[in-house]
Amino acid sequence: MNPEPRIDFPEESISRARELAQLYKRRDKSKFQSAAQLYEGHFLEIGYGFNEAIKAGNCGRYLHEIVKEADCFTKAGVLYLVAREAGLKPELFYAENMKNVGEGRDSRYVAGSSHAFITVEVKKGERQLIDPQMKGFGIVTIDPDKHEMKIYNKGCGEIKHRHYTQLRLISEEEYLKDIEEKRKPGGGRVALSATQCVHGAGNTRVYLTFNPEEQTLRSSIRRHQILIAEEPYERLNVIDLSTKVGPNGEFDFDQGMLSFFQATAAEWTHYNNPQAPIFFSVQNMRKE
Question: CA–CA distance from 8 to each of 77, 190, 216 (Å)?
Answer without folding.
Answer: 12, 21, 34
